Amino acid sequence: MSITEQRPIISKLEKQELFRFLAEGRRVDGRSLLQYRNLSVQLGYIEKAEGSALVELGNTKVLAAVKVGVALPFADTPNEGILIVNAELVPLASPVFEPGPPSEESISLARYVDRSIRESKTIDLSSLCIVPGRSVYSLYIDLYILDYDGNLIDASVIASVNALSTTMLPKYSLEGQNIKKLDEYFKLELKDYPVSLTYAFFGDKYVVDPCLNEEYASDFTVSMTVKSDDRFCAIQKNGGGMLSPRSFLDLLEKSITLGKELRRVAYSQIVKK
Amino acid sequence: MSITEQRPIISKLEKQELFRFLAEGRRVDGRSLLQYRNLSVQLGYIEKAEGSALVELGNTKVLAAVKVGVALPFADTPNEGILIVNAELVPLASPVFEPGPPSEESISLARYVDRSIRESKTIDLSSLCIVPGRSVYSLYIDLYILDYDGNLIDASVIASVNALSTTMLPKYSLEGQNIKKLDEYFKLELKDYPVSLTYAFFGDKYVVDPCLNEEYASDFTVSMTVKSDDRFCAIQKNGGGMLSPRSFLDLLEKSITLGKELRRVAYSQIVKK
Amino acid sequence: MSITEQRPIISKLEKQELFRFLAEGRRVDGRSLLQYRNLSVQLGYIEKAEGSALVELGNTKVLAAVKVGVALPFADTPNEGILIVNAELVPLASPVFEPGPPSEESISLARYVDRSIRESKTIDLSSLCIVPGRSVYSLYIDLYILDYDGNLIDASVIASVNALSTTMLPKYSLEGQNIKKLDEYFKLELKDYPVSLTYAFFGDKYVVDPCLNEEYASDFTVSMTVKSDDRFCAIQKNGGGMLSPRSFLDLLEKSITLGKELRRVAYSQIVKK
Amino acid sequence: MGEKISLFKEDGRRTDGRALDELRPIKIKVGVLSNAQGSAYIEQGKNKILAAVYGPKEALPKHISLPDRCILRCRYHMAPFSTPERKNPAPSRREIELSMILRNALESLVMTSLFPRTVIDIFIEVLQADGGTRCAGLTAAVLALADAGIPLKGLAAACAVGKAEGKVIVDLNDLEDKYGEADMPIAYNPTLDGITLLQMDGIMSKEEIEQALSLAITATQKIHKMQVDALKERFSFSRREV
Amino acid sequence: MGEKISLFKEDGRRTDGRALDELRPIKIKVGVLSNAQGSAYIEQGKNKILAAVYGPKEALPKHISLPDRCILRCRYHMAPFSTPERKNPAPSRREIELSMILRNALESLVMTSLFPRTVIDIFIEVLQADGGTRCAGLTAAVLALADAGIPLKGLAAACAVGKAEGKVIVDLNDLEDKYGEADMPIAYNPTLDGITLLQMDGIMSKEEIEQALSLAITATQKIHKMQVDALKERFSFSRREV
Amino acid sequence: MGEKISLFKEDGRRTDGRALDELRPIKIKVGVLSNAQGSAYIEQGKNKILAAVYGPKEALPKHISLPDRCILRCRYHMAPFSTPERKNPAPSRREIELSMILRNALESLVMTSLFPRTVIDIFIEVLQADGGTRCAGLTAAVLALADAGIPLKGLAAACAVGKAEGKVIVDLNDLEDKYGEADMPIAYNPTLDGITLLQMDGIMSKEEIEQALSLAITATQKIHKMQVDALKERFSFSRREV
Hints:
The complex is a heterohexamer, with 3 copies of chain A and 3 copies of chain D. Chain A contains 5 helices and 13 strands. By secondary structure, chain A is of the alpha+beta class. Chain A has a single domain (12-266), classed as Ribosomal Protein S5, domain 2 (2-Layer Sandwich), CATH 3.30.230. In chain A, strands 2, 3, 4, 5, 6 and 7 form a 6-stranded mixed beta sheet that branches. In chain A, strands 11-10-12-13 form a 4-stranded antiparallel beta sheet. A two-stranded antiparallel sheet of chain A has the order 8-9. In chain A, α2 (104-119) crosses α3. Chain A starts with a strand and ends in a 7-residue tail after the last helix. Chain D is an alpha+beta fold. In chain D, 28% of the residues lie in helices and 31% in strands. In chain D, the strands form 2 sheets. In chain D, strands 1-2-3-5-4 form a 5-stranded mixed beta sheet. In chain D, strands 7-6-8-9 form a 4-stranded antiparallel beta sheet. Chain D is globular, with a radius of gyration of 18 Å. The two termini of chain D are 35 Å apart. The model of chain D has no long low-confidence stretch (mean pLDDT 94). Classes of the chains: A alpha+beta, D alpha+beta. Chains in contact: A-D, A-F, B-D, B-E, C-E, C-F. At the B-E interface, β1, α2, β13 and α5 of B face β4, α1, β8, β9 and α4 of E.
């Protein structure tokens, strides 16, 4: 059962201020409506994982780590590696995160990131086959939300792609019926550099990269993932409220422009020049 | 832990009326004490399942569907197919059904239906072996309670047997070590047509096929499953209260008579003349 | 989440009495500070288990039973049998035990007993291999707490070792690729006879083998498992409060002396003279 | 999107004979269950879906209630027999996500401030699945709410649009969902010109999405008319059957 | 009921030497646990079963309580080592069903209206299983209730009857339960002439059931006498041991 | 303790070049998270651990609260990527035990009677594990409590001592933990001369334990100094970063 969430109450004063600023085309933290917060990326934060990245987007901190294993392929894709995305809303990040099995928020986040990476074909899963029908690489992306100040989706996509870009896979040789792990590694190749852009709506106004207070005060958010070729590979409206078709079309246009910019910043350390 | 259930309270007036009618040998909905409600059976309701039937017994609606798979046999019955019965008290059927793992009511219902089919040998499980010790057919009967107005047991047995009667199984050929699914099907053969008869007790009086209000007002119920040869293959008393040995013997007699009648109606579309 | 437990409240009077006695070097039930309660061991209580023992330590009753199976060995120990300890705080033993998945108390108890047996090498796991890398014996020790009057740890270690000492394992012969169970059995050999000694602290005073009221009134407990050669193989402080290094060193000394005594009583039926 | 399967016939029509912008046959009935406060049943292609509504009723335990409006609980659930392989009845990650997406969409329609401290339960059961179940489920759930007499800001109808072999299409069936290039479920309220549910996966350019959106609006308007007809039938006859 | 196993010896006696209507050796003790308000232990054949009762006590959380009577909670549970193969300690579907069946049977005996808003917990632990555990468990649970001083309408004793190789028999052991043709557990209160627990599976004709019922009544009357003796012993000696 | 691995180099130093009584490099920061009331981060060898504190806050549901003091809730958790093989994020038996052991240790430090009817939540997340995580986690958790402004009876620092190839050593790394002969985690409060956490597994004689205890006291005193330094830095700069 999905149940109406109980958002922490923002004081009326805070909300009024937020709307007053919006009416003037400004935001409480000084940003313009379509401006992202400061973004920093630390590659290889978890040395023991095959790939990892720590992303800070303002006060939001997301750690993504990739663990590589060997698994039986799915029956309908015997020649493809397996990609699984899992997100943990770690309770130290926020008083609203609780220990326990994955919440609908964490599942929805993981599934959106999964779609962004899978549909954009950022990874060529068919290159992750060891023995067709028998052994394929499995990539587990674990998203760990360490500090929560809104816009988990965009930060998580950026963290995941950066973590994947640092991922080293062990080589295997086939010995008779069995495979043997070698002490050699190869780098996972990325085929695309998708970015997600998330907008929070307040009536007919919207801002990009909402911080937590903006998310709480907003009617709903819309996230869009754009590929390097400006095509879209994932979209999702989250929360109640209605999006006008006109605004939707606006967002498509804005996202292509903003996406180019964000991609440049987010993947500056990993994109080949 | 099984815990005393909290039955919805029936108004005193309703209850008084019910008892006044019973004293006169009548029921509130106009039936006689040993009369079933209208019964309708719609075969093949779920085209995508290998077998299915939708049963309406008054306002009680039960959908039974059979899914066929291939499984490893149990170690102690290497030559027998596997039969599993599962019941879901779907929350749209009643305000007292809650989402979540199977309740004791749904487990008890499924196990009673399982016994009724298994003990009556309605299906010859030894005919469902593909490769002894390695591959057998598995039949999953899912009972879906869509609308709840009492007497789930009788409706569920009827729905299950009807669903089984429409079940088509794919043929398999043995190719070396593996089995291969062919594009041919065969009909599951039924060896018996069991019916369950459920009685609700009010002091020393009882009625057959209780509707929900009667169930709530009763002391307890007794269900009995009768085979085509008039022998019994499952009995269960549900609820508190005491059944006198005399009444028990009465029920045995009544069930044989009523069973013949019910079997004729319940399986009119599927029994070979 | 581990959460501060709600201990049943002992009346102030009871507590005062307990402390008054302690101040005089006595205990409410007449024991001296370092005296164990009466201990009785009944071997082979569960005939259908491969090994078992019922231990009564005062009013605390622990039943330990060993079930033997065959399992795949762990990848990193292909030549070793598998030992698993599980503890059930059965709700009939105490109003504070609740049905449901294992509590942290039961997990902690099972893990302490596991360490006591595993680290002392009471069982030579490498002697429990049938086919290296493929089939090994698995020993499941189930601890069943039937009556709860404190000091579960010491009673459970004693029950486990006694149950193991009665354990008979079936022999297997290798037939081609498969193993076959023979109708012959051999006795599990014990290499050590560890005992755990548990102390409850009240300020700077402590008693051994606390009963339940003493546990509730104490600041914390310390358990130590001593091997036959007087070396230690497991230690654990349970509960809040601080243990002074001085007291810790005292306990080491006391445990060696008390351990010898307890070992003699606890294993009188099974230790070879 | 593994093996090569042709999603169009030689005459340019889809595998089930439809034109690019053509809906599958739809059958809607309102008021089909006897215990629920409101209920509806929809068949769209081979989809068979029931929706039921209980409430508004007191929100228990109290700490889940809100002082200024009612809360919604929503469960989207697939019957074990609704899919080719038997589905475990425990909720999958997909079902948990869709329950949330559908609750959000319904939340924008219900006049929640009329019923403070209460809860409305919405159950959507997919008895047979054939692509587009979340959309058909939403179409039915909105009707179940209306059937329960719960004041709405308006109806909303839902339909997936998407892309297959480079062509933008409407109301994807199972095959097109599986082997097509993109799937974009949309729920739309024509009165308020608002999108209440929006997801997309697969790959589409801005221009393709624009075209798809336009088709979705037309399609949902058609379904909206069927919703209105079903409600009219309900309140003239009051027939109850699946 | 797979392989062929003979359940009768050449002299017509059962595999354990019993006559058709003969009970297994039964040993009952009341008041065997120190913490429980009431407790009892039964051995019947190789069955070893403990029952304990806590309560009546305040029903928490409050919403489970009833204003006019006490509620019962009952857990029938098999120890992991009670069966030939180790049993997972998590409750199986069978244990969940039997917990309900046993609660129902006990509910008909307890004078629940004497203790409104309270709860009585009944725990039945099967330490070793040998056929007929639900019946032996009920026999013990009734005594644990009596030991706890809870007013009962009367005792009830339980025993399975059934059929093996065409013969109606009493108190089935493990082998007869597994390879016989029918098993009918019955709990009976001789004072009120009432059956409080009744199940059957396997195949029996009306005549066979009549015969089995008659044997069950005789058998439970015998066990009832042992219950009374155990209670007498309990209240004269007050010994506590397993 | 399976295969033969040498834990000492020819010069008598440990595999990572340390002397027997030498700690691994330790880096501590206090106040690293923005939402938590208090937080701390520790690196000890390759361990990377975050601790955060929320509270004191109202204890809900009420029945968990205590009238005379605050309660503590503690979760020790390992990230799925913290170990060589991916760890299932659901709590393991080991994590459940350590959560309890750590809560107990912290309970002895917090002045709980100052905050009746409230709860303090303590979260310890192991991002990367390299032996001795419970000790490093405790060292960090104590600082997170101090950072949250919760009155403590004193700080406590923790460190494992143990035995490898017959030698008593301090601050075991992953390899020494796995292949050594004994591991004894200790948390010690130097001001009150009290041990708040104590466990041991493996085999040690009384004399070895005495020697290990003495080394542990010296080691924890060193870590205690680093704790104090980290707190000073926190309250002079108030920098927040991981």
